[in-house]
């Protein structure tokens, strides 16, 4: 099997690292060689966070070069736009439609870019969902990450039960039911 690459992008505090941990564990359980690399920006202050997940028979390096990602899983709309150059031609973009204003927008020095969804549709195979609403429906708005992992899971041939088993092993027990519901809502979105 050729090596496949997934980029997970978002804003600090959205749970991208937990999402990459779940994804990596699922892929390991399926017998793949998996490499995960996390790049933290000013994540404590709402800055960009990027995780690269590469898997296959033998993976030599964890980093995804521009034009190398098969899939981008974006937790925020502007982060999806920033990751677009990393997507392969014809690659899949799975996007949360939530907008989180970066510091220049908050300070009034810039405007949040318009037309991002249209640009993503032109340049990728786009699936966009309101993961924040689905997480609230599940019972906790912080479960956006697990909604998006559910959305990603649906695009794979890995059985639903493998994902939920890994979720149960990864998420603290007191949050498991909310996260199971969030995963299911994302999977069926």
Question: How are the SSEs placed, and which strands pair?
Answer:
Elements: E1 4-11, H1 16-29, E2 33-40, E3 48-56, E4 69-74, H2 77-83, E5 87-96, H3 103-106, H4 116-123, E6 125-129, H5 131-138, H6 144-154, H7 160-170, H8 176-187
Parallel strand pairs: 1-4, 4-5, 5-6
Antiparallel strand pairs: 1-3, 2-3
Please give a handful of descriptors for the protein shown.
8 helices; six-stranded mixed sheet; alpha/beta; single chain; Pyruvate-ferredoxin Oxidoreductase, domain 3; 189 residues
Describe this structure in words.
With 189 residues, the protein is α/β, with parallel strands linked by helices. Helices cover 40% and strands 24% of the residues. A 6-stranded mixed beta sheet has the order 2-3-1-4-5-6, with helices on both faces. α1 (16-29) crosses α7 (160-170), α2 (77-83) runs parallel beside α4 (116-123) and α5 crosses α8 (176-187).
Task: Write a brief structural summary.
This protein is α/β, with parallel strands linked by helices and 189 residues long. The chain is built from 8 helices and 6 strands, in the order E-H-E-E-E-H-E-H-H-E-H-H-H-H. The chain starts with a strand and ends with a helix.
Secondary structure class reads alpha/beta
Mean pLDDT: 94
The counted number of beta strands is: 6
* Distance N to C terminus: 29 Å
The Rg value, from CA coordinates, equals: 16 Å
Helical segment count: 8
Number of domains: 1
CATH class: Alpha Beta
The helix-strand sequence is EHEEEHEHHEHHHH
Strand order of the largest sheet: 2-3-1-4-5-6
Unreliable stretches, pLDDT < 50, 5 or more residues? Answer: none
CATH architecture: 3-Layer(aba) Sandwich
Q: Kindly report the name of the CATH homologous superfamily.
A: Pyruvate-ferredoxin oxidoreductase, PFOR, domain III
Sheet having the most strands: 6 strands, mixed
| CATH third-level topology | Pyruvate-ferredoxin Oxidoreductase, domain 3
């Amino acid at each position: 099997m050729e090596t496949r690459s997934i980029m997970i992008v978002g804003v600090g505090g959205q749970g991208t690292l937990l999402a990459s941990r779940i994804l990596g564990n699922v892929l390991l359980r399926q017998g793949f060689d998996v490499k995960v690399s996390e790049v933290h920006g000013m994540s404590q202050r709402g800055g960009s966070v990027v995780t690269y997940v590469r898997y296959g028979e033998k993976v030599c390096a964890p980093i995804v070069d521009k034009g190398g990602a098969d899939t981008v899983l974006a937790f925020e709309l502007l982060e999806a736009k920033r990751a677009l150059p990393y997507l392969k031609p014809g690659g899949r973009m799975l996007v949360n439609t939530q907008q989180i204003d970066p510091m220049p927008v908050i300070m009034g020095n810039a405007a949040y870019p318009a037309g991002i969804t249209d640009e993503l549709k032109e340049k990728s195979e786009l699936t966009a969902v309101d993961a924040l609403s689905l997480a609230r429906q599940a019972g906790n708005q912080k479960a956006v990450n697990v909604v998006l992992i559910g959305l990603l899971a649906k695009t794979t041939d890995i059985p639903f039960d493998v994902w939920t088993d890994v979720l149960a092993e990864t998420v603290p027990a007191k949050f498991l039911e909310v996260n199971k519901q969030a995963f299911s809502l994302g999977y069926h979105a």
